[in-house]
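Sequence dictates fold. Below is an illustrative record:

_____
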Amino acid sequence: MSSYKNILNEIGNREEEIVNLCRRLIGFKSVNPPGDVSEIAGFIKDYMLGRGFKVETVAVEKSRVNVIASLQSREKKTLVWNGHMDVVPPGRPEDWKSNPYEGTVKGSMLIGRGAADMKGAIASALEAASIIVEKDAELDGTLTFHFVPDEETMGKYGTGFLVEKGYYSNVDACIVGEGTCNQVWGPALVPAEKGILTLRIKASGKSAKASLPFLGENAIDKVIKLMPMIESLSQETIKTDPRLIDLFNMGKSFYSIFNKMLGLSLEQIERLYTHLTFSVGMIKGGIKSNVVPDEATAEIDVRVPPLSDLDDALSRIEKVIKESGIKGITIEPLEKVEPSYQDPRAPLVDLVKKCMSQVWGREPALMIQPGGTDARFIRNKLAIPTVVMGPTSETAHSANEYVMKKDLTLCSKAYALIALESLSL
């Protein structure tokens, strides 16, 4: 790995360049919804073309553009770096201390929507690609970048589409650049993620005058009564695959630091991976305060541990509804995102750990992601070795989202080193 010292040093000297590149990316309002990434995609396309990459754009819809950039040396191994160009909406303007699309530098921080999720990672990857070309590094294979449009809305037009259409057919390994590393908890990478089950529960009742409520059947009451029954499932320990417990134990050092920051105990974190979690996100019902509502709906978010079954979780919920005795209840799955798992002892994980250790000066932690990323498409459908690693902070999806400038540089070095070692002669 020492033979790549010049490349790593050069990236280290270009921190301000990476920061300014990230600021440019933040300036593109690629908010999803609506999910128009055409402008940022055009910028990335031109950037990669200017550095000698072969670039292809694939638009499932006019505004939802995938940018595929490849640098080929020999017809051998292929490594893909994957990242999304879309960001969540900024929320209330008054909650921001600066313009969310300006990319404001404040001391060691870069603030703006997408800084941590994940335009910071894209800037790090672009700089790594640029230096690899500039230094004429010899690659024994193909280095490809997939910049996708819609990870924030489940990836149907981005990574999911590319997997379906064969863009991963000859890929040997993948790095998904979602955030895992920062100056607070240090370097980390993700080999496993929880699954997501989004459900709409509908209650039917009978309308009546509010002055005579006993003549009606209040649908809102049914929903309110049912929700705690469903959420009680979070108290039940589900059957946990021994591999998940093993992975959790590997990351205990990371969780100890993370817990201090959030004020959580290790037991609370462990429950995330041995129990289902539930969050009622929406409740709707009624037409007027003096009318007994005959219809109400609730939408709930259920998170399922890696190596567990979404259908089993759904069956548990259906059983609770049936045994509740509450009439007029229907359940409709809206989104089903399978959990994903990568063997932490796989050669790719070892290689990434070694590269990250050289860059950070200490071994990265292995963490289980409570949310989901596009890695699931690549792991679950194609069984391609895939790890998640990139710069972030605790403010992703929040007002005043930021990333540390140093984390951009460290991750850029790591991306470059992983590419060089994966595709070394």
